[in-house]
Amino acid sequence: MATIPGNDPLIRAIPAAAGERVTARSQARQRLAFIIMLFPVLALVILVRLIDLAVVQGIPKSSGPTISAAPPRGDILDRNGVELARTFEAYAITVMPRRLTSDPEVLATRLATILPERTREEILADLTSGKSFRYLARRVLPGQARRINELGEPAIELAREAERLYPNYALAAQALGYTDDKGHGLIGVEKAFDADLADPVKRATPLMLSLDVRVQQAMSHELAALVADQNAKGAAGVVMDVNSGEVLAMVSLPDFNPNVPGKRADGTVYTTANDDGSRFNRVTLGGYELGSTFKAFTIATALETGVLTNLQKQYDATRPLEVAGFRIRDDHAKNRWLTVPEIFIYSSNIGTARMALEVGRERQREYLDKLGFLKPAEFELKEKTKPQFPPLSNWGQLATMTISYGHGLTVSPLHLANGYATLVNGGFYRPPTILKRDAAAVPAGTRVFSEKTSAEMRRLLRLVVTNGTGRKADVPGYRVGGKTGTAEKIEGGRYVRGQNVVNFAAVFPVDAPRYVVVAMIDDPRGSKATYGFRTAGMVVAPAIHRIIERIAPPLGVLPDYNRDVNLAGLLPGGADVKE
Amino acid sequence: MGLAARRLDKRSYPAGAGAAFSRGDRSRFGRWFWTIDKTLLLLILALIAAGITAVAAASPAAARRLSGGNFRMDDLYFLYRQLMWVALGLPVMLGTSMLSIRNLKRLAVVGTLICLLSLILVPFIGGGANGAARWIQLPGFQFQPSEFFKPCFIIATAWLLSLKLEDGSLPTMQISAAVLAMALICLIAQPDVGQSALISVVWLSQATLAGLSLTIIGALAVTGVIGLVAAYFTLDHFAARIDKFITGSGDTFQIDKALDCFRAGGLMGTGPGEGRMKFRLPEAQTDYIFSVLGEEFGLIACALLAGLFLALVVRALLLAMEEDDPFIFLATSGLAIQFGLQATINMMVNLALLPSKGMTLPFISHGGSSFLAISLGAGMLLALTRCNPFLKGRPWAKGALAA
């Protein structure tokens, strides 16, 4: 039965003889023993690798690579500790389209149901872009991120990224500003204090602003209602503590949601064509001729420089004033000689201009400079307008006269508010601030006006509200003082006929001033509520009334119906004014 | 006497000698029960139980990944499917394990021919995934011929090679090499390099045990390496996977997800249902199920599972070692090596020790073809080890008898 081996080169001798079969069997067993020993070795390799991964390497650092584009950043609080901006860990959803393992059509549909802010088509375009990396969404909430994770598409990565949240949406948007996707502040406080907010040590302490969300909200709401009612282009508003220079509210309308800074309120993306200026901070960056509100500074300068020794001094306002081919008129022309209080409450341009001539160019400039009107506001935000005014060579008689009633000089509403604070707080100029100032940290300030001048100005301001153009601003018990202002709007260096900037600077309580409220409306169109009038007294004064009514209680200003400034002797004739 | 009683020898027992379930029970089941290798059976059942647990853990990950925009797959869809496959697979295994050696050979030869035919037909009527046509759609079932081909071919090879041992003049090794070559051509055409390599290595092991000379083994190994290199340069699908593995820096990202699972699992695992990384796995329910276990049950469970496979393979190979019958020797060794290699390759792919192969973890991975084919193989293994003529094979038993 035995065959001769060797007829098959492939097979070594496979003998069939009994003895040889035993040899073949033992050889087979030897080989099998070798194979058996291989398996424990392989198992050992697997075990070592398991220990390497599970014990030595341990838990992966995170669910995905962290995109540390936006580093942690300090919180921003209002003066009472309310959160204005904070940083939280959101998710960035990224995809590597080239590495997709599932059907993009199906995946896009499922992602679209999780990410409502993106359409299926947009997502599909990203998925099929063939790029190596794409952001599907940023600032994704943990719940959405979890659902996306559960889709199990390995080409989709969830990256933690620090995200800036502005819980009050558009409230004080321009003042707060926002950051870019790298976490750098672009405007507002975010830009001005970028270094501090990003500083690894300093960011642990929240940045406490002087803003008060209650005041901010009241002013924002009233101005927004007014803009809607007047079909106006916009509005600006400031509330400032007259004694510390702290800004409690800073409103600029239209505003935007800093949580989605690249988009307008209606969701469309900003382009140069459709930019509604909502990111523009009118309070600090807007330069306006503020009109009659400026007359207060002219009178105060006249008092301070001794031009006026008696408020009953009279100025000729019988006819328009002709200077260098230019005619100065009064809106509420009385065509008679007017005392200083009459000039103020009737808002006489002629009287004010004559007074400024007596003060003179040098002293006018000196006091405007002391009030900070000839330079950008001394303020932390970077968005500040540079006041526009004629050079000294061109600052002649005409300029002196027009500037005395607020024309020919553009400043920001913040300048105006701070000027009024200086006017009524006893005469001290202090740089305004967006940061909370402890009583000890309030700078002493530089004296611009004497206490006596300041007291006289308080009486005059009160008189405008009790007897003049600002009557609608009065709030019983709160002793509101203030002054209206109306100026033609300047666009591109030219006056725009028929478009006004109307404003009101108010102080309360005027006998012991605590707060200045400045409101400005850009191009009001008149409404039923104002009987079609577009003047400051009709448009802004009622808003000032409502604002003070709302902000005085939370600010701790108590109404007192038995106190008021002594107005005796200001208007011997018992003059009255109607618009 | 106990050892002798394990012999399947009809003559030892007069008809009706034993009561039901006693050792004298000569019913079909009774004979089966008293002759089956219970250690192997328990190991296999333990693996199947572990597989159900693993599929339960992997099912939500796979279901959510595969759910479409318009339909939602139940989280436990794959668990229910796996339970169904187990319900189908267990009878297949137990039924196969009751076959006689003669019927086993018949089944293997017929199965090999059917599978070979199917493999040839796959490119024309087959469906596929990930750039490969691998299966034929049957009602409710994707029939993957390569999976069933493996156990049948191993048995058929063992039979052919054992004939050679009986009569060296028979060209059976050439015949089986020819069948292997045909199968390889079909598999590489699919392409399924992983299965090709596995089947080749198992065949080579069997041939080695059957006495193939070491120089020829070496030559064949070189040929295999050349074949792999050729596959690398001709098959994009294969080349991409190898590139991934070797460069590491390339598209390593699916395997990175698997590694993250083991890292997240640590020693004890996150606990059942607590796994998060698993949702990012590709093919969580099949190729990467070991990673799911790694995350939810931890290193210890993974090591135990590897230990179960090791025990199964070593137990089967030791039984083969005691075997005198060349066919049973070669068949048992072949099946055990197949299980062991397939499990090793799968686990190593999960651990990034080998490039991605598209191979399932025996008994554990979800899947119709793979589970039924594994059940068939396990049944064959049980049938082969069941008929062991212990007294001849066991050196120490011999000694006992001699005494």
Automatic annotation (TrEMBL), chain A:
Record has Hydrolase as a keyword: yes
GO molecular function, one term: carboxypeptidase activity
CC annotations in GO: plasma membrane
Superkingdom field: Bacteria
Domain spans labelled Penicillin-binding protein transpeptidase: 237-538
Protein keywords: Carboxypeptidase, Hydrolase, Membrane, Protease, Transmembrane, Transmembrane helix
Cellular location(s): Membrane
Residue ranges of the TM segments: 32-51
Location of the Penicillin-binding protein dimerisation domain: 70-181
Single GO BP term: cell wall organization
Protein name per UniProt: Peptidoglycan glycosyltransferase
Organism: Sandarakinorhabdus cyanobacteriorum
Automatic annotation (TrEMBL), chain B:
Protein's membrane topology: Multi-pass membrane protein
UniProt GO molecular function: lipid-linked peptidoglycan transporter activity; peptidoglycan glycosyltransferase activity
Residues annotated as transmembrane: 40-63, 83-101, 108-128, 177-203, 209-235, 297-321, 327-349, 361-384
Listed name of the protein: Probable peptidoglycan glycosyltransferase FtsW
EC number: 2.4.99.28
PANTHER family: CELL CYCLE PROTEIN (PTHR30474), PEPTIDOGLYCAN GLYCOSYLTRANSFERASE FTSW-RELATED (PTHR30474:SF2)
Organism: Sandarakinorhabdus cyanobacteriorum
Similarity-based family: Belongs to the SEDS family. FtsW subfamily.
Enzyme class: transferase
Domain of life according to the entry: Bacteria
UniProt GO cellular component terms: cell division site; plasma membrane
Key words of the record: Cell cycle, Cell division, Cell shape, Glycosyltransferase, Membrane, Peptidoglycan synthesis, Transferase, Transmembrane, Transmembrane helix
Catalytic activity, reaction form: [GlcNAc-(1->4)-Mur2Ac(oyl-L-Ala-gamma-D-Glu-L-Lys-D-Ala-D-Ala)](n)-di-trans,octa-cis-undecaprenyl diphosphate + beta-D-GlcNAc-(1->4)-Mur2Ac(oyl-L-Ala-gamma-D-Glu-L-Lys-D-Ala-D-Ala)-di-trans,octa-cis-undecaprenyl diphosphate = [GlcNAc-(1->4)-Mur2Ac(oyl-L-Ala-gamma-D-Glu-L-Lys-D-Ala-D-Ala)](n+1)-di-trans,octa-cis-undecaprenyl diphosphate + di-trans,octa-cis-undecaprenyl diphosphate + H(+)
Annotated coiled-coil segments of the chain: none
Subcellular location: Membrane
Primary location class: membrane
One GO BP annotation of this record: regulation of cell shape
